[in-house]
C-alpha cells in the first residue's frame, strides 16, 4: 500500500554508481576517492577488492573493512548485505568510530542489474530510517558504448535507469563518433543528464562530483519534459523492448487516486524498470516519487519550490510496456 510518509530531513543521500564492464567506472571512482571533493563521502564497494583500490583494500582484515583514505573519503568493502553494510556504517559514524560522512556512493559490479539495489535503497524500511536514495549514475564508454548496449541487456538496463549518464574515454574517441553517441543516448534514456568525463584542469574532480550529486539529479530533467498534458514517447523500442514515456499531470492528485495508480502499475511487475515523478498532491505539498519494478518508495516531500515543466512530470522507463498501457495508468491519476 502506498504511503504518504517521507524520509526524515536529515536522511543521508545515497548515490548508485553503475556501468558495464570496461566503461571506465573503476577509473573514475579511483580518481574521485583521492580528491578533496570526496572528503565527506563513504564509498561502498559491493565486491571486496573489485574497484581499483587494491593497494588500500586488498589484504585488509574482514573485521575491519572500512579504510580511511588520505583525502578523508571512507572506503568500505561490502561483505554482508547492503542493508547491513549501511546500518553498520551509520552506527559506527554515530559512535564516532569513523568520521562523519555527508553522503554514500555505492559502486556496483559491471554485470549487475542495478534495479534490486535501487529497490533496496528506495523501499527497504530499515534503510529508509537513516538514508534516502538520491539518484543513479551510469558510466558509458564513448568508444564501444553503443555496441555494448545493443549486445548486453544489463548495459541497456544500466543506461535506462540512470539519472545521470557519464560518457567516459572521450579522449579516445574521434569528434564524429563522440557526436554520434551523444545524439544516440537520449533514445535509451531521454531524461538523464549527460556529462563528459574529461576531468580537465578547468573542470576538475570537485566540480564534476558536485554536478552529479546535485538535487536535480533525482528529478525528471526539465529539458525532457513536455508542458502539455498528453503523453510523448521519447524513447524508441530498442532491441530489448526498453521504452521511455513522459507524461504531465496538471492538477493536484488525491492520495486515494495515487494509491490506486500505484496498485495498477504494480500489476506490471518487472516491466516497470524505473519511474520518476514530481507530483502536487491535494494536501498542498509536492512530492518526489520513485519506483523500481513493482516497488514504490515512500513519497518524498520536497521543500524547495518546483515549477513547470518539472512540476507534474512523470517519467516511465519500461520493458515491453505499450503506450496504451502507460496512458491507461496515467488516466487513473487525472481522470477526465
UniProtKB/TrEMBL annotation:
Cellular-component GO terms for this entry: cytoplasm
Alphabetized InterPro entries for the sequence: CobW-likC_sf (IPR036627), CobW-like_C (IPR011629), CobW/HypB/UreG_nucleotide-bd (IPR003495), P-loop_NTPase (IPR027417), Zinc-reg_GTPase_activator (IPR051316)
Which Pfam family is one of those matched by this entry? Answer: cobW
Q: Where is the CobW C-terminal domain?
A: 242-334
Domain of life, per lineage: Bacteria
CDD domains xrefs? CobW-like (cd03112)
**What does it do?**
Zinc chaperone that directly transfers zinc cofactor to target proteins, thereby activating them. Zinc is transferred from the CXCC motif in the GTPase domain to the zinc binding site in target proteins in a process requiring GTP hydrolysis.
Family recorded in the similarity comment = Belongs to the SIMIBI class G3E GTPase family. ZNG1 subfamily.
**Protein name as it appears in the record:** G3E family GTPase
The organism is Pigmentiphaga litoralis
